[in-house]
Each structure stands twice: as C-alpha cells, then as structure tokens.
Amino acid sequence: MAAQCIHSISGSPSVVCAVCGCFSPDALPKFIRSVDWIKHAATAHEYISKWKRHKNVLEDLLLLFGHYADPIVRQNVVLSLDDAELGDKQLSLIMPQLVQSLKWEAYDACALVNFLFNRALESPRKVGLTFFWQIIVETSYKQQHRERFVK
User: Fold this and answer.
1) pLDDT digits (tens, 9 = 90+) for 123-151
2) DSSP at 35
3) 88 touches 127 (CB < 8 A)
4) Architecture, CATH, for domain 55-151
5) DSSP tag of 84
6) Where on the phi/psi map is residue 10: left (φ > 0), alpha (ψ -120 to 50), or beta?
7) Domain extents in the chain
8) Residue 95, class by beta-carbon neighbours within 10 Å (0-12 exposed, 13-18 middle, 19+ buried)?
9) Strand partners, 14
10) Which tens digit of pLDDT belongs to each residue from 99-127?
11) How far apart are the C-alpha atoms of 53 and 104, rounded to whole Å?
12) In Å, how far from its chain's centre is CA 54?
C-alpha cells in the first residue's frame, strides 16, 4: 500500500501523494531516498513531519546512518527517540549505533549530540559512562573521527 502512495508528479521527483494520506512508516526511507533535496527540501520536510513513526522507535535508527544526511530527517528521529522515553538500560544498548551515527552529522552541534549529552548528564553512571567509553572506542580508530569527538 505504501508503494501506491509514492507518485511522480509532472516530471518532478517522487513526492508523497497528500490526497491519499497514507504515511506508512516503512515507506519513509524510500521516500527520503527519492527526494531531490536541492529542489524539493521544503516540501519533503512538511511530509516528514506528518509521517507516522514506527511503534518500535528502534526501527527509525536506520534513518541516522549516512544515506540520510538531511538535518531535519535526523532531528525527527532524535525527537522520536526522546518521545519514546527509553530507559537508561535501553539507551545504553543502542549507544554504539548512536555514537557511530555522530560520524555522519553535518554539524558538531546537532539534535543527536544534544540528546546524548542531556541523557548522559541525567544518568552519569549508566548512560554517561557508556557514552564516554563509546566515544573513546570511536576516537581510537581514525584521526578524522578523533578530531570531531574530542572537542
């Protein structure tokens, strides 16, 4: 059904059909990949803000990887993580993926960094230590990542 909701309109790149109102969570990555971000970023941002989220917020972690570089897309994933109210243990379990996602952030000051720092400060012994050691691991590999993480 989600595939029926993505249409090519008048030679422009694929956009979501606003009439049908189907915003399946599984179609979001396909939609994001199909958008011409130079020409249609504002329209895409409108649709993304209306998109249904997965009930399991962990499904949205895919959108934090390098293929999805748009800051608004990434910010929406972080907002859904925040809204999910993950416990400290749950957050610690996905911390490696979140820290790896920092490599693909366009800016040092971003929603994901703010989210991780806030959660680390709220729970320094559980989330903070996990965050610290994940950063140490990531900075031990390549100089380019070390420069970003040690600021």
Assistant:
1) 999 999 999 999 998 888 766 655 666 65
2) S
3) yes
4) Alpha Horseshoe (1.25)
5) T
6) left
7) 1-52, 55-151
8) buried
9) 8
10) 999 988 888 889 999 999 999 999 999 99
11) 22
12) 13
